[in-house]
Structures are given as C-alpha cells and as structure tokens.
Amino acid sequence: MLYQIYEFNHALVKPMRAVANFSRAALNHPANPFSYTLPAKVASATLDIFEGITRRYGKPEFGIESVTVAGRRLAISEEIVHRLPFGDLRRFRREDAEAVTLPKILLVAPLSGHYATLLRGTVRALAEDHDVYITDWSDAREVPFAHGDFGFDDYVCYLMRFLTVLGPNTHVVAVCQPGPAALAATALLAADDDPCRPATLTIMGSPIDTRLSPTVPNELATTRPLDWFEQNVVMRVPFPHTGMMRRVYPGFLQLTGFMQMNLDRHLDAHADHFNNLVKGDGDSVAMHRKFYDEYLAVMDLPAEFYLETIQRVFQEHQLAEGTLRYQGRPVELGAIKETALMTVEGELDDISGIGQTQAAHALCFNIPENRRFDYVQPGVGHYGVFNGSRWRGEIAPRIRDFIASHH
After folding, report:
1. Residues 6+ apart with CB under 8 A from 220
2. Taken in order 322, 325, 326, 328, is the CA torsion positive or negative?
3. Spatial contact of 156 and 184, defined as CB atoms under 8 Å apart
4. Cα–Cα separations (whole angstroms), residue 137 to 33, 167, 383
5. Is the predicted pLDDT of residue 257 greater than 80, yes or no?
6. pLDDT digits 0-9 by tens, 331-344
C-alpha cells in the first residue's frame, strides 16, 4: 500500500511542479523588470528547491565522449553487446587503432539502489588503458513480471554469462556490493577449468566478510530477522509501471535510508544551494545539480536478490564460512589458483570497514603470493575508493599496473 500512496502523491504533485516551473521561468525572464530584485530571486530559488525535491529522477547518461591518453583526445563510443532482462553488458569502445590490443575489463557495478552511471568516473579512468565493459543493471520496476525472479544465484549466473561473452583473458573489477558474487563466479569457472575464468579479479570496498570492522549498514542488516525486511520494505510494483506486481525493494525507500545516514549534510547542501541561487552563483548551482541528479536517481531492486544478499552475505556470512552454494552446488574458493587477486579498501570507509575486503586473500588460499596485491588508500571513504582525485591519481594507476603484470 505504501508504494501506491507514493505513486499517488507523485501524481498529485505533478501539476504543482508544472506551475512551479512556469512561475520560475516567468520570474527569471529577462523581460521581467522584477527578475533582478531580491524578492523575485528568493521566490525563484524557492520554486527551484520545490521542483528539485519533488521530481522523479530518471536514469542518468554516462556521457563519456572521450578520454585523454598521452596528451591525445580519443573518442569513446557506447554500445550494448549483450542484453538480458535484468541487465545489459555495455561497452565503452575507444575509437583508435590501439583499441584492439587493450586488455578487456568487466566492471561489475553494484545492484544496490543507484544506477551503474554512479561509476562514471571509474569507467573514465579505466577506459584510458583498457577496453571497458560494465554490468548495466535494469530497474526492477521496469522488468515485466513474466521474466520471473532475480536472486543472488541469478546475479552470479549473469556474471558468468558476461564473462563467456567476453571470452578468455578478461579482467574483472568488482566495486562494493558485487564482491561476493564476483568471487563466487570466479570460483565456479575455475572449478570447471573454464577458459573464460578471469585473468585477474580486483575487489574494491566490498563486504566479503562483514564480521570484520562492522559498520552501521552491517549492523542494520543483522539487528533484525530476515522476516522483518520482507514484511516492512518489500512491496509490489504498482500500475502503471512495466514491472507491475513484481516484488521489489523500492528505490524511494532506499533513498530515504541513504539520506538519513547523512541528513544534516544534505540539509546544509540544499540550504547552500538556495543561497547560491539567490546570489546567482552559477558554478556552485551547477555542481549541486550535477551531484544530486545522480544521487537522487535510484531504482527498485528485485526482492529476491535484496533478501538473499542480506541473508547470505550479511547475516549468515556464507562466503566467509565456506557454506555458499550456487544452485545447490558448493562454491569452493580454493579452486581459484590462476586468477590473480587484488583488493582495495579506503581508510575511512564507513560502508565496508577495513579488513572486510582483505578477507578475500585468506579465503582464496590457493592463489600464489606473487599473484596477490592488497592496497589501502589513506584518507578516503567508500565513495573515494572508486571516484574522485585519489581514485584517478593513486588507485586507478595501481589497478592498471596490476592488470598489466598479469595480462
């Protein structure tokens, strides 16, 4: 019922948003003699804030048109190379003669609320030296009910299928949540001696073993039984969405949780945005909108995947305990012998604490020491592990060198 109420309220406020947009345009029009007065600027800023907090944000574009390599600007083109109901395999092709010799990277984006475009900065840095593909997950509310469920095993299956499409000597980089699934897919392919098993696996800020340095999100997942999550946050998609009747963890509930974790910071950011609108500080206004256009764009998660991730990864620690099974088959991390393993953590990560990602090394005990590398980036939190200046200047070059040494 809560999802239906949310949809009703969104429809109810839509005419108000249209009026707000029209009024704001009239207030800001150059022909309006009052547009430069303080009351007009305050009114316009108020309407801008109202429009921003009541809008439904759609999936952003990656918008990566080029990268710069050795002072040369090289064009990037996007294409979908493999389509599946719950996610596509998207490629960022470098348009130059050297592109055919670049190492292939499968960048595994998290299915945790935000779209894969959150890794735009990750893609841009990796595309300078690699042929990058990304898992572009679908919004569950737009996947027809007839396509069935999508659980943790399906996620692992998708990764193995994408690796088969890409072929041998592919390098996997898993960001945050997909670390356990990426490890499981690698182990299953290795146990089958599949030539499409990853050449290297890089896991970044990931919940491999959440018993180590538990954070607030880890504790929230363990303080309540699984039934509580199913009864309180799982809902069915209402009309008129394509995925009507599908069970999901709605995006608007996830966004509420994200915002509450740093509510004071968001309130301050919007207060600053209001002041910048009144002052006419165009650069600050543009930066605010760029960030929140991405941050407020959330998607529904398949209920099966959400609940199974809580149970398997955060409550039962199946990967760390060695009890994880894929379609009834044991997942044996000891089967990973040839895939080189790199782990990356942020010193200040408040989502995946220090040691949670490093745990992968102890679990993959048959990987030789000369094929392992662990790196902790000082001074960055969770987001800084895969985006920002430290990512571009310190983490990405280390991943590049690691891949090059094991390609």
Report:
1. none
2. positive
3. yes
4. 48, 21, 19
5. no
6. 999 999 999 999 99
For residues 339-375, b (16+ Cβ closer than 10 Å) or e, as one string?
bbbbbbbbeebebbbebbbbbbbebbeebeeebebeb
Helices (H), 32-105: 38-54
CA-based max dimension of the chain: 75
Q: What tens digit of pLDDT does each residue of 25-41 get?
A: 888 888 888 888 898 88
**How many helices and strands in the chain, by DSSP H and E?**
15, 14
Q: What is the DSSP string of 352-366?
A: S-TTTTTHHHHHSTT
Q: Grade residue 255 by pLDDT with cuts at 50, 70 and 90.
A: confident
Gap between the Cα atoms of 369 and 366, Å rounded: 9
Cβ pair 268, 84 in contact under 8 A: no
Rounded to 5 degrees, φ, ψ at 34 are -95, 0
Q: Quick one: residue 318, left, alpha or beta (phi over 0 = left, psi -120 to 50 = alpha)?
A: alpha
Contacts for 89 with CB less than 8 Å, ≥ 6 apart: 80, 81, 82, 83, 133, 134, 135, 136, 162, 165, 166
Residues 6 or more apart in contact with residue 244 via CB below 8 angstroms: 145, 236, 237, 238
The structure tokens 């662990």 sit at: 374
Helix pair 263-279, 38-54: axis angle to 10 deg: 140
Structural contact between residues 317 and 356, judged by C-beta atoms closer than 8 angstroms: no
Q: Looking at residue 119, what is its pLDDT?
A: 96
Pair of tokens at residue 130: 């690699």
* In 204-348, alpha helices (H): 216-222, 226-232, 251-261, 263-279, 282-295, 303-309, 318-321
Question: Which helix (H) or strand (E) is 162 found in, with range?
Answer: helix 152-166
Instruction: Name which residue leads in pLDDT, 290 or 237.
Output: 237
Query: How does pLDDT run across 178-230, given as a tens digit for each residue?
Result: 999 999 999 999 999 999 999 999 999 999 999 999 888 888 888 999 999 99
Q: Side by side, which strands form the sheet with 235-236?
A: 235-236, 247-249, 301-302
Report, as an integer, the average pLDDT of 117-136: 96
Residue pair 234/307 in contact (Cβ under 8 Å)? The answer is yes
CA 286 to chain centre: 23
pTM above 0.85, yes or no: yes
Chain centre to alpha carbon of residue 269: 22
Phi, psi (deg, nearest 5) at residue 170: -100, 140
